[in-house]
Design goal:
Layout (H helix, E strand, L loop, with lengths): L13 E5 L13 H16 L15 H12 L4 E5 H8 L3 H12 L3 E5 L6 H14 L4 E5 L1 H5 L1 H5 L6 E3 L4 H12 L10 E5 L2 E4 L21 H8 L2 E4 L2 E3 L9 H4 L4 E3 L2 H13 L4 E4 L8 H14 L4 E6 L7 H9 L2 E9 L3 H5 L10 H11 L2 E8 L6 H16 L5 E6 L7 H4 L32 H40 L1
Parallel strand pairs: 1-2, 1-3, 3-4, 4-5, 8-11, 11-12, 12-13, 13-14, 14-15
Antiparallel strand pairs: 5-6, 6-7, 9-10
Helix pairs in contact: 1-18, 2-8, 4-5, 11-12, 12-13, 16-18
Length: 499
């Protein structure tokens, strides 16, 4: 029998749960062609030693839940965290069985389930069903980007009691106090909830002062086990939000168009804790790490002064990578990778989604990164509103060229999704597109069905062009992997002969 990773057996007021990511039961939601491409990129990243949290597929601690846990604990709410994803990867124990065991041992009054991604909706509802079997009176709440966007849909299933909209810490804390003390939920700002058959949406909650947040409660999490499994990888959120208004992004609605940074010394303190407990690689999961470069440089200086020895990556915009002194400074602090949303290499398509820069800047940005020693992985988004067949094929050709020339280490080749809550999903007619699929479970960047048209192409035509590009990139990745193995083999042979 597999040994559980989580040994906390004491009763708790609240149990926070991370569902399994990409469970085999969700396989039908994902494009088989994309799965082949994704696995080829995974192998390439692993064998070339490139740490990509997206493509390497390694789990990392659910920092968002650990931040919620720390905030609740500071307000005298007892809390436990169950990472069902880690448990499943380590022991193959089914998430519903693990949840039942955790509910039996911790006996919480409140169950919180993370719903950051739309493809987790079915997984989350299965967990809700399992929880109701053993604890029918349990108060169940969901939260996260996806849950915020489709709160009414989730509540109308009749299985979930409430949804925390937007930033979670203060709303969840107030909700817990109301439930534990049997008070009305009407006064909990930022909460959507069921009152009989009616969905009630309380007023939005103002954004928090991030300086008031305690460090994420990593002491509640089995860091030793996950670092052994993932090679010492962790994730940190140094800031929240982004001021830009990309049409396909949840950020403008979720973060109200605001960017806020934590105190740089607090971020460095969190990184120090990770380094001292065995972490080696950290991804700063900020949506826009380089937005306030003085702030980012203060973090970089703090890392250098603390001599942490961490390798880290962050998300940058193309225009930020034109600043060579900035790239040099974060490289000195250990930054070795940047995740960049290129989205399109067609000027017309790029201009139509308000990215704020042009395709002509990309070559200079990539040259800066290569010369300084920061590897770049990028997203490409197929099916933007202005995309034509020529624009899609041109973007695909250019992305493959940059990948084959090692100017891009990895390419994440996604289908544009008109997510609920985004400008594109909320007003598709404004941008001249038709949404072909409204099932939230299929609203993912690598779906198995067509999602939306562009102004020039039907949803099926967009989907077919995307799958054509996926197959081409898969072939390019396999060829690159073969060349890497040949170079490695010849290098080992030459070393053997010289020895």
């Amino acid at each position: 029998m597999a040994r559980p990773l989580f040994s906390d057996q004491d009763p708790r007021d609240v149990l926070l749960v991370q569902p399994v990511i990409r469970h085999p039961r969700e396989a039908h939601l994902h494009s088989p062609a994309f799965n082949r491409y994704f696995h080829s990129m995974q192998r390439l990243a692993a064998e070339t030693g490139f740490y990509s949290l997206v493509t390497r597929g390694v789990p990392s601690p659910p920092t968002h839940l650990l931040s919620l846990a720390a905030y609740l604990r500071a307000r005298h709410v007892s809390v436990a965290v169950a990472d069902l994803n880690l448990q499943y990867l380590a022991t193959e124990k089914e998430p519903e069985d693990e949840l039942i065991d955790r509910l039996t041992s911790t006996k919480p009054r409140i169950l919180g389930i993370s719903a950051m991604e739309s493809y987790l909706l079915d997984a989350a509802l299965r967990l809700v069903h399992a929880a109701r079997q053993v604890a029918p009176d349990l108060f169940i709440v969901q939260g996260g980007v996806n849950a915020t966007a489709i709160d009414a849909h989730i509540l109308q299933t009749g299985k979930v009691d409430a949804v925390v909209r937007g930033e979670g810490e203060a709303t969840l804390a107030d909700l817990c106090q109301a439930v534990l003390k049997q008070r009305s939920l009407a006064g909990v700002a930022g909460l959507s909830w069921r009152q009989g058959e009616r969905v009630v949406r309380n007023p939005d909650r103002p954004l928090l002062d991030l300086a008031t947040l305690p460090l994420p409660a990593r002491d509640l999490y089995p860091l030793e086990q996950i670092y052994a499994l993932n090679g010492g990888v962790d994730a940190v959120y140094g800031s929240r939000g982004c001021p830009h208004q990309c049409l396909f992004c949840h950020g403008p609605a979720f973060w109200k168009g605001h960017w806020r940074g934590r105190r740089p010394d607090h971020v460095v303190q969190e990184l120090t804790h990770i380094a001292n407990t065995g972490g080696r690689v950290v991804f700063l999961y900020d949506m826009n790490f380089g937005h306030d470069r003085r702030w980012a440089l203060a973090i970089a200086d703090g890392i250098v002064n603390a001599d942490l020895g961490l390798i880290w990556g962050c998300e940058l915009r193309v225009d930020q990578m034109l600043d060579r002194p900035f790239l040099e400074a974060i490289h000195r602090a250990g930054c070795r990778s940047a995740f960049v949303g290129i989205e399109s290499l067609d000027p017309g398509s790029l201009a139509a989604v308000d990215k704020g820069y042009g395709a002509r800047h990309l070559e200079e940005a990539l040259e800066n990164a290569i010369q300084i020693g920061i590897a770049v992985e990028a997203t490409v988004m197929i099916g933007l509103p202005a995309d034509s067949a020529a624009a899609i094929r041109g973007t695909t050709d250019a992305a493959i060229r940059l990948f084959e020339d090692d100017r891009l280490r990895l390419v994440h080749y996604f289908l544009c999704v008109p997510w609920p809550g985004t400008a594109l999903g909320s007003s598709p007619e404004r941008y001249g597109i038709d949404v072909a699929c409204t099932d939230p479970g299929h609203m993912i960047t690598a779906p198995s069905v067509p999602l939306a048209s562009t102004r020039h192409l039907s949803a099926r035509e967009v989907f077919d062009l995307w799958e054509e590009g996926v197959a081409r990139l898969c072939e390019a990745a396999l060829q690159k992997l073969m060349l890497h193995r040949l170079r490695k083999s010849f290098g080992a042979g030459a070393h053997s002969m010289s020895g």
